[in-house]
Design goal:
The complex is a heterodimer of chains A (211) and B (222). By secondary structure, chain A is an alpha+beta fold. Chain A contains four helices and five strands, in the order H-H-H-E-E-E-E-H-E. Chain A has helices at 31-34, 41-62, 95-102, 174-182, and strands at residues 107-109, 114-132, 136-154, 160-167, 207-210. Chain A has a five-stranded antiparallel sheet with strand order 1-2-3-4-5. In chain A, strand 2 (114-132) and strand 3 form a beta hairpin. The longest helix of chain A is centred in the first third of the chain and has 22 residues, at 41-62. Chain A is elongated and about 85 Å long. Residues 1-40, 64-75 and 186-205 of chain A have low confidence and may be disordered. Chain B is of the alpha+beta class and 222 residues long. Chain B contains five helices and 13 strands. Chain B has helices at residues 2-18, 30-38, 93-98, 122-128, 181-191, and strands at 42-52, 55-58, 70-74, 83-84, 100-105, 108-115, 134-139, 145-159, 165-170, 176-178, 199-200, 204-206, 210-212. In chain B, the strands form two sheets. In chain B, strands 1, 2, 5, 8, 9, 10 and 11 form a seven-stranded mixed sheet that branches. A five-stranded antiparallel sheet of chain B has the order 4-3-6-7-12, with no helix packed on it. Classes of the chains: A alpha+beta (211), B alpha+beta (222). At the A-B interface, helix 2, strand 1, strand 2, strand 3 and helix 4 of A face helix 1, helix 4 and strand 13 of B. Strand 1 (107-109) of chain A pairs parallel with strand 13 (210-212) of chain B, so a sheet runs across the interface.
């Protein structure tokens, strides 16, 4: 325990040593000024102003972090359920039937006759924080989505030649997915749906079917 | 005590001023031009002019790109999906304020998408690129300098806290392309003289599925 001192019982000193009334004409400071230390009133004013200035600068610095949340659903894409593509049969299903059931594709790789459909499904919410650009940060909640891409290659006659329903990671470029799938021998991991899967194949998430 | 406060003030000021850092991207350097020529890429200049209540609005008024109209590009490499450009390129500050920007593009089909400056959450804004209005730019093989046309982009304007106007909502359905080929030729002559006069390759408003094509293989340079 610290020893008690007489100072503990002393009357509190004024925080700002200002005394109302005119200063002495000879320029001497009043006695109250002197109790604040050797530098007097100037130091006392700086001590008061510095935290205020620091606080204001901090407010300015953090002002860029304020973000108003908006409706995330506006950016959500369509969801193509696995069940919705069970009609696809390589060598049988025609281009018109695909368009009628699935609608227009998002991307058409014209020279390779490949149609790509993006699929998104919201599976939860994510709390996030992120620096954006050189000067600001942002944060909030957003939808956690499960993303897939349905790729369908047609033959010259407009019949489905092969198709795949592939998982798409957050950072996967659609361009990379298309090229990987199209490149012979470099196809992305694919898994047929349950009703078409060969026995013993337990991989999840993707499926494919060739003629 | 005073020293500590001073250090805190300096640090906080530094953090505050870090927001003022911008990366000006002027005309292409000789190295960049040489790289573009080796890769068979073209410099394509476009002009975008905002319009609200019948009055023109400079869409690239600010030197800080996040306060300007946001531009995204996509093509064969991205599978047709557009990705926002971190920085825009312009040949001069004056040209930027007139709405002139340029891209270095490989031969093929490219898509330019536009969005107002970001005023919402990061992910919300990113997700909106998918549905952002887009314009198609076809770059023929062998092109070195191109002018993609001048896009008049109507919309609803708002004002930043310090007075500059910006397009807050776009009305792409009322957009139109006009020809400022003469001014484009002047800018190329003044800032990119080695490329020669630009060829007009007018951008087209695109709707519906994105079309991509396999790029034609380039002949090896002799």
């Amino acid at each position: 325990m610290r020893p008690s001192t007489g100072a503990a019982f002393a009357p509190p000193r004024p925080f700002i040593a200002a005394r109302p009334g005119p200063r002495p004409r000879d320029g001497n400071r009043g006695s109250a000024d002197r109790v604040d230390g050797p530098t007097g009133r100037a130091e006392s004013g700086a001590k008061t102003a510095a935290p205020t200035v620091a606080f204001l600068l901090l407010c300015l610095a953090l002002a860029g972090c304020v973000v108003l949340p908006a409706d995330n659903a506006k950016g959500a894409g369509r969801h193509i359920d696995r069940g919705a593509i069970l009609f696809l049969e390589a060598g049988k299903t025609g281009h018109r039937d695909v368009a009628r059931r699935l609608g227009p594709p998002d991307v058409v790789w014209e020279t390779e006759r490949i149609h790509a459909y993006r699929s998104e499904r919201v599976v939860g919410k994510v709390l996030w924080a992120l620096p954006v650009g050189p000067y600001s940060a942002t944060g909030g909640t957003t939808d956690a989505t499960e993303r897939h891409v349905l790729l369908i290659r047609f033959d010259a006659a407009g019949t489905v030649e092969r198709f795949a329903y592939l998982e798409r990671g957050f950072f996967d470029s659609l361009g990379d997915i298309l090229r990987r799938w199209h490149a012979p021998g470099q196809a992305a991991p694919e898994t047929p749906p349950a009703d078409r899967a060969p026995r013993g194949d337990n991989r999840r998430g993707s499926m494919s079917h060739d003629r | 005590m005073m020293n500590r406060v001073s250090i805190i003030i300096v640090l906080v000021t530094a953090i505050g001023l870090a927001s003022c850092v911008s990366i000006p991207r002027g005309p292409l350097t000789p190295d960049e031009l040489a790289d573009a020529a080796r890769a068979g890429k073209a410099v394509v200049m476009v002009r975008i002019l905002g319009e609200a209540d019948g009055e023109p609005i400079s869409v690239f008024e600010s030197s800080h790109w996040e306060d300007n109209l946001a531009v995204a590009l996509g093509g064969f490499e991205t599978g047709g999906e557009v990705a926002p450009l971190g920085t825009l390129r312009w040949v001069s500050e004056a040209a930027r304020k007139e709405g002139w920007i340029f891209f270095v593009l490989a031969p093929g089909t490219h898509y330019m998408a536009l969005q107002p400056p970001r005023l919402t959450g990061f992910f919300t804004y990113q997700a909106r690129w998918r549905h952002a209005p887009r314009w198609r730019i076809e770059v023929p093989a062998g092109l070195r300098a191109g002018y993609g046309g001048t896009l008049i982009l109507p919309g609803k304007a708002s004002k930043w806290a310090f007075g500059a106007k910006f397009l807050m909502f776009l009305a792409p359905g009322r957009s139109r392309i006009v020809n400022h080929e003469k001014r484009a030729a002047e800018l190329f002559a003044a800032h990119l003289p080695g490329l020669g006069p630009p060829t007009r390759i007018e951008m087209v408003r695109h709707a519906g599925p994105v079309i991509i094509r396999t790029p034609q293989a380039r002949k090896p340079a002799k």
